[in-house]
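All the exercises in this workshop are built on plain-text protein records. A record pairs a protein's sequence with a compact description of its fold. The structure tokens are whole numbers drawn from a learned vocabulary of backbone shapes. Once this layout is familiar, the rest of the handout is easier to follow. An example says more than a description, so a record of this kind follows.
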Amino acid sequence: MPKLSIIVTGRNDNYDGNFNDRLAMSLTRNIQSLPDAEFIFVEWNPYLDRPLTSEGLKKIFNDRVKYYVVHPKYHDRYCTIDGFLEYPAKNVGIRRSQGDFVASINSDIIFAPDLVENMLKELKEKVIYRSTRIDIRPDYLRVHFPLNRKFILGENYGPTNAAGDFLLMDRKSWLDCTGYCEEFPEQRLHKDALIVHLLMTSWRYPVENIGAMTHWRHPSSWSNGFCRSKVGDPKWDYTKTGYRTNKDTWGLTFANEVERDGIIWLE
């Protein structure tokens, strides 16, 4: 059983024009840094008349990555405002992961050396491991460490800030808290903050920042503004929702799984 599982998500829409390049570069670098980790890519609600992102990744990484594709028929029960859902997609990967510790990350980040070093150390159960996100220029694809200041656009860290970019816990804790909230279909934003908030307040988990990661600030990045129609209410008070855990079927455990050419469809 691998010590670490890394969950990445996406869709075959080439988000912001160079999503495929950012995703491939991120996976390449992070696999190089963590060669023994399990990497899982979950493709949510793909366009059925276009080639899958999973198919393109398989040509690059073959079986080094596990691929899951969530059929569009499941999307509407989780969201009413956008075509891609990051957090239910991550839940699909979390439920199917095999690692002792599971990191849910965004598709366009690269682990800095200090983060990699700390991920390989002895990790503790019932601890929320987080990372500082360093926003970099979108044209700086071949990231080198230490970072040149001219490429840095800003930094973002706080226990609940940018929690969707990197959240690492032991697998049992993920299962106990039932992953990211799958309720409130009119709301996409802040569900990453919600899980951290609940873990800190209801479960009394401590938070540790264990390093840095880079993030390409592409045009639709939250750092560059937001589109309310696709994220919901940016002022949504997730602390007053009354939500605690998902249903037992979170992560689409009830979906039929069919393998085609090394890619597993949830149908």
